[in-house]
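Subject: two folds for Thursday's group meeting

Dear M.,

Sorry for the delay on this. The cluster queue was jammed most of the week, so I only got both jobs back this morning. I'm pasting them in the order they finished. Each block is the input sequence followed by the predicted structure tokens. Could you check whether the formatting survives your parser before we put anything on slides? The first protein is the one we discussed after the seminar.
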Amino acid sequence: MGPSPTDLPSRLLPSLEPWRDAAHWRIAFSGGLDSTVLLHLLAQLAKSQSLPALSAIHIHHGLQAAADAWPQHCQAVCDALGVPLIIERVKVLPGASLERAARNARYAVFNTLTEHNDVLLTGQHRDDQAETLLFRLMRGAGVRGLSGIPAQRPVGQGMLVRPLLNVSRAELEAYAKAHELSWIEDPSNQDRHFSRNYLRHQVVPTLTERWPQAQASMARSAAHLREAQGLLDELAQMDLAQACTAQDFAWLGLPSLAVASLAVLSPARQRNALGRWLEPLTRLPDADHWSGWSDLCEAAADASPIWRLADGELHRSTGRVWWLSGQWLRAPAIGADWQTPSLTLRLADNGSVMFSGAAPSGPLRIAYRQGGEVMQIAERGHRDLKRLLNERAVPGFLRGRLPLLFRGDELLAVANLPGLDGPAQGGWKLHWHPSGEDQGLS
């Protein structure tokens, strides 16, 4: 005999225990069975337990006529339970996957509304976990994807928590009927053109007919894979610690790794470490596109290979790989006259420059390397700029955007490079502050 629906409140409390000191619990309330039961459970628990302030969020996608009545239903349910409700209307952008577009619109709101020390609670359950595992298996997911829906993860400035992942849909239905709850049945949940609905209505019933414990078993497999992923993450952190070596251009604020530290690892271990490093920076390549990493590593020593990814590029230069995105991929404007050298000069797509000490006499201008530049160096005479940059092992991607200070045709300084950023006895230095843009995804 399975657990009674009356046991659900006591089963829910342990999974919520770590979050009892949160400032606010916000329930993502679609009005469907899962979130209706979750809302009711929490409202009932709040009568006997000291819980954070409760409120609900309903996202109105406006994708079908039936949905127009849902905000009113959700408001009535929340009013009856004494839980404040926020209703947010979103515009779902058209695309290849309507499911994904709706999810993106929904989570954009959740990210905005979840404040510091807030917890956003959602109603995914064990059946959802099994469907997710099957769906990702059909898409050829790796260990991370097959670890399923996580019980918690960051969202906005707080945490998203899924306290029902060990509860079956049948148990939620039993609870709803026992408490005479009413909920919305989304007509789109019957549309078997959607992959998840096909799995829910066609595949999972067939599996559970043959293996009654199939969903529980799949959830257990997902837990094993989550543990395996945790070990892979630990290994990646160890390998990245070896590759995040000190380097002379840390002031650029660009993520970079030493290639030699990665090259001694097996190919699978390289991909594991690099995938972990790239994850906050870009959408990761699929298995077929990891050949770009091999090409980057195997290029000739004097080459400057580039691996283009969804949200930026990896450049190999001076024994390192560098992550470039945003304005680092846009060529800076040719230059600008510096009318007021005592003030900071903002450069198009290239941060800003300023002097420390008294500025040299003018007229001054900032420009970028075109090739053939020569600079007068104390006790060395005239030297080609290319040679001077080589001596300082300046990465290739940086050479065309290092600000150069000219007076007429005379090259006076190269920003930020010791010995080239101003005269040895001159009392001034040229400082460049590269872009303040976030190098990762917003």
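Second protein, same layout:
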Amino acid sequence: MEKLVERISTTPYVSALVARRRFLFGAFVIFLILIAVSLTEKEDVNAWSRTQSGFSHLAAANGTNSNGSIPIQSSPLIPIGQGYKRPGYELPLADGIPLRIMAIGASTTRGDESFDNNGFRRPIREYLTSIGNPVNFVGTQRVGNMSDNEIEAYPGARTGQMHHHALDVVPKTKPNVVLVNVGANDCFQHWDIPNFYKRYYAFVDYLLTASPRATIVMGTLLPTTETERFNGSADVTVVNQQMHRLYQIFKNEGRPVVLADMTGPDGIQDSDLSWDGMHPTSAAYIRMGQILLRSMIEADARGFLRPAEPIHGVLQDGDLEHQDEDYGRWADEQRRLEAHRKKVEEQEVMKMTEELKRWTTSLEGSLELKKHEADIVPKLRRDSNSVDASNTILAWILGLLATWIQSNF
């Protein structure tokens, strides 16, 4: 039987049939691969068209951009990915929930030595509202020239004293973000520094208890160069070390607490302090605001930010609470003037764009003329060279003719 099968399989017809079946199977596999590749390429092209739909208007028939901008013919479009939009960058924090913020501390929290007495609150508020989060600062005091300027800050107050002030205001306002900057006066007054961390822990624990939906942003202390009255630089170093350890403890406990480290290479330096060696300059307050914002973005990324508890009489937007005040009316006028300025600027940009378009068109025309001239000059030079060569040959022939006439006549 085996010999019979072997003889049948070796016949020319059967061999050709087997080879043909193998060829068809291989062709079918290749066909499937080509289909898969084509589908993948189509999907990639569609994805590219979706991400780059905004570029379709750039190509114009005359080589200039249809929106009037200057054409860049030597720079082809490079595929750009959609990128990673982290919370707080172009997107509002926590899906745009209203942020009821309490800034609590002493004179640095108040913004002392800043040009407008808003300190770090102004840049924080401007950024958060620009990305879509309604903001209302809360507190029993009003400091600064912005309308939403409530705050809870007392110059010279130590951590324990600020804890006492919080007992009254926090249950009445229920902030969902608390910017804490306390401890500097403990250092300046050299108030039981070895046990500072116990007072700070009790303070933060109370804030989270009195406002259960709050996120605490712990701000470390700024450096100090003042040496004549307080000389607290060494104590600041000790307290900041305790704060870093406390933050690790809160983190281990799973508390909604983030650290805003004001030290380090990108923090506040000695050169950023004002004349008194204790408070930051106006520019340094802005940097403080940026550091605090980074910590709020981190809090959002970790899922800490939650809507504040409803409180009767506390609005979502702090500006609305004071829109009828003199400053509120002034702020409205400033916004109106800013809108007018932006409109004028847009018109000027459009005029400049049209002028650039005309200029580039004329420039292209002059380039075409120069190219035409560049093509004509070599041709004229070649024609001139041909004429010179012809004249040389003619003169040589005439010379030969004159020599022959002289020799024969």
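Two things I noticed about the second structure. Residues 93-323 form a domain with the Rossmann fold fold (CATH 3.40.50.1110). The first strand starts at residue 99 and ends at 105.

Cheers,
T.
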